[in-house]
Design goal:
Layout lengths: L7 E5 L9 H15 L3 E8 L3 E4 L5 E8 L1 H6 L5 E2 L3 H10 L3 E5 L4 H13 L3 E4 L10 H21 L2 E4 L2 H9 L7 E3 L15 H11 L6 E6 L8 H7 L6 E6 L13 E5 L3 H10 L2 E4 L8 H8 L4 E4 L15 E3 L3 H12 L2 H18 L2 H13 L4
Helix pairs in contact: 1-13, 3-4, 7-9, 8-11, 10-12
Length: 382
């Protein structure tokens, strides 16, 4: 048995559950899985008040009081921390072997990077997005200014920069992240929660619970009802005589779905019910744009669904087999023809679904994701 002390990791995120969002979900899964693999994990994040807690999962959470007005008033998820943030970051960086920063746009990231530099603790930085195309010109201008100054400095000094798609990889390299220290690392997905239906009986029972037809091929869309996600393109692709029905799960204004025959709206669903929706359906369609590799695509693949989505350049690092994944132009005609063909070809759907599940088990499982992080952190153990 090794007498080596456990790896001490500080994860830094502007938000953490119970706050809901993509980055905090990733950080939560990383923290829990790293702790399960024997690391001593601390998360530095925001809260309504400053406090330190340790959960049943073994993760120590240090919350620094922050004002969340920008999100409440303008929909901009940007907590404004109290002046005690830097003190907390210095204390936690000093006791850590490695610091993992998430996205270089936030005050928590800047403070923790400074603390890591002052304490000579190596840090890794995951950049989740490039400049977000926000409707406010002011928000876009501020993003570009922060990334161009602070982001450039943080990326150049990181031990490793992790990205999830080709677009973000190009973005960080444009800001000076060294190519030899930039690495593609997909987000994980819970492959036990998101799994294929065990058999036809399970699928039919779920369809009954969700109010879905038992005898139709079902194509599932999961996402917000915004043009970026392409729900309107999917509706246009669905002809009057289509041999499949559309199932929509997500939040937003769904009025456009009304009056379309063969269209079912499940609304916004919690993760356990979303997982059942995947198991109830026969294929997954998401004609979105400018997303890189959405979490819903990973969930669909883990659920063993054939994947029909946009031929986005951001997918390139994933090396998907184009004979087993349908990557299409973002046009209703091509999308409709492909869905019609898949609805009529059960054998092809089965082969595509088996490929998707095998890919997810190999590349999207959280334990493998955390093991890759441990390898990166290991070089920084003092």
């Amino acid at each position: 048995m090794s007498n080596r002390p456990p790896l001490r990791v500080l994860l830094v995120s502007h938000y953490y559950p119970p706050h809901v969002g993509g980055i905090e979900n990733v950080v939560h899964h990383e923290a829990v899985e790293l702790a399960a693999q024997g690391a001593e994990v601390t998360v530095l994040t925001s809260g309504e008040r400053s406090c330190v807690t340790v959960g049943a999962d073994g993760v120590r959470v240090v919350r620094v009081a922050a004002w969340n007005g920008p999100e409440r008033r303008a929909g901009v998820p940007y907590p404004v921390f109290s002046p005690t943030l830097l003190t907390a970051a210095l204390r936690e960086a000093r006791r850590a072997d490695a610091v993992h920063l998430h996205d270089c746009l936030y005050l928590s990231t800047w403070s923790a990077a400074l603390a890591a530099t002052l304490t000579r603790t190596p840090y890794v930085l995951t950049q989740h997005v490039a400049v977000v195309n926000h409707p406010s010109w002011l928000v876009k201008t501020v993003q570009r200014a922060f990334y161009g100054v602070v982001g450039r400095l943080l990326l150049r000094r990181a031990r490793a920069v992790l990205t999830m798609n080709a677009r973000v990889a190009a973005f960080v390299r444009g800001l000076g992240a060294p190519a030899e220290r930039t690495r593609h690392l997909p987000n994980g997905v819970d492959i036990e929660l998101f799994r294929p239906a065990r058999d036809l009986t399970e699928r039919q029972l779920i369809r009954k619970r969700l109010g879905l037809p038992a005898d139709r091929v079902l194509a599932l869309f999961v996402g917000r009802f915004v043009p970026k996600k392409g729900y309107d393109i999917l509706l246009d692709a669905h002809g009057q005589q289509a041999d499949y029905d559309l199932v929509f799960a997500g939040d937003g204004d769904a009025s456009a779905l009304a009056g379309h025959p063969g269209v079912h709206h499940l609304g916004a669903l919690p993760p356990d019910v979303i997982a059942e929706a995947y198991r109830a359906c026969d294929l997954f369609a998401l004609p979105s744009t400018d997303e890189g590799f959405p979490l819903s695509v990973q969930e669909a693949m883990a659920s063993g669904l054939p994947l029909v989505t946009t031929d986005d350049p951001g997918y390139a690092p994933y090396g998907l087999d184009r004979d087993r994944v349908c990557l299409l132009p973002r046009r209703a005609r091509e999308l409709g023809e492909t869905l019609d063909a898949l609805a009529a070809d059960e054998d092809r759907r089965r082969a595509m679904g088996q490929y998707a599940r095998a890919y997810a088990e190999r590349d999207f499982a959280w334990p493998e994701h955390a093991a890759a992080l441990v390898e990166l952190y290991g070089g920084g153990v003092r």
